[in-house]
Amino acid sequence: MNLPSEHLQPGVTRRDLLGWAMYDFANSGYATVVLTAVFSAYFVGVVAANAPWATLAWTVGLSTSHALVMISLPAVSTWADRHAAKKRALAISTVGCVLCTVGLASVGAGDVALALVLIAASQLFFAYGESLSAAFLPELAPPEAMGRVSAWGWAWGYVGGMLTLGLSLAYVFWAQGQGQGQTAVDFVPITMLITAAVFALASGVTFACLRERAVPQSPVPGGLGPASGPRSAWVNWRSTWAELRTQPAMLWLLACTVAYQAGVAVAIALAAIYAQTVMGFETTETMIMVFVLNIAAAVGALVLGHGQDRFGHRRALALTLVVWCITCLWASLADTKLSFWGAATLAGLSMGASQSCGRAMVGLLAPPERLAVSFGAWTFAVRLASVLGPLLYGAVTWFSGGNQRLALASTAGLFVLGLLLLTQVRMPAPASVKRG
């Protein structure tokens, strides 16, 4: 992490920054290999044997997990803020995701229910970890460097995704070179174990280097207090959104996030399925494509991450949403693998930049004493988007008689909606966002 010390909060060291960025490095392999490049297509083609309902089952499984995140995350975030326990909660979520990923290695042909349960559970723990890790950002970076620090973490994450996918690819090529007719049934389970191992080892750096700087909070007299029992999630959910109603800029940003992240969710959840069913990619071709997409995403995050601190976060996000619109239309019209490769590369540039920029904007708007809750609300928005985007894609595919090209083209409308909502976001002046 070669950032100057003036880009860090007082008392924050490069060791802290490395520890934080290593969590992006660690968990990106899960998102890249399990959700995007390998297991999604494996589920449709092998586990569900290309049944007509296979893609719908995959999206329903993911949507169920996202719904569980939305219900439970406010309680988790409130607890983490109140007890200054972001790091402790992060450790628990990491162990859960790693163990569920190991479990995916046991999934074979016909194990539809087991696959969906493990995917839903691993996604749940992954979302907790993503939110809790992001909540450390404002403790590490001053407002004037929020964009580039977020970008460094996100770009480092794509490096982790490339490492995990690269190791998986290396194993697949080795297995196929053994001359024993290795198929996805043979090598996909090993890629799950590789993913889990990288996640566990890399996150160890986070827990060794990153410090918890928050202090436990005293209960507010007469307030909602710490809820327990079956009403806990609802009480904390209501408390969180009651607070957010006093922050119009954050609410508009969250609405914008739902819109454009719904489009991003389509790219993450369905890229491999589209590449194989529409464009005729083989499994190894898809993995290579996602590897290149990660390189492009790292470049996009770094370039725009440095730029957004200079010419404005809102302008930077608007630029990426315009590029996303172009990408959706290009990919839907691509009739050769080479053309689709071009669209995928552009998607990578847009993905890294838009996600890094959105996280930095939340960091600028989040109150210092409510970081986990604010980033929990951001994760809520992202998970809601992850339900709506793929389901919209699936609905368009269903009603158009299986026309995935039309479904992909219609995804551009989500980014247009994001642009319209972004016009209502009013970012604070630099002087008003400085933290003591």
SSE inventory with pairings:
Layout: H1 14-37, H2 39-47, H3 54-82, H4 86-104, H5 112-134, H6 137-140, H7 146-176, H8 184-209, H9 232-244, H10 248-277, H11 283-311, H12 313-333, H13 337-365, H14 371-399, H15 404-410, H16 412-422
Helix pairs in contact: 1-5, 1-7, 1-8, 1-10, 1-11, 3-4, 3-5, 3-9, 3-14, 4-5, 4-8, 5-14, 7-8, 7-11, 7-13, 10-13, 10-14, 10-16, 11-12, 11-13, 12-13, 12-15, 12-16, 14-15
Task: Describe the protein.
This protein has one domain: MFS general substrate transporter like domains (Growth Hormone, Chain: A, Up-down Bundle), CATH 1.20.1250. With 436 residues, the chain is mostly helical. It contains 16 helices and no strands. The longest helix is centred in the middle third of the chain and has 31 residues, at 146-176.
Brief summary of the model shown:
The protein has 436 residues and is mostly helical. It contains 16 helices and no strands.
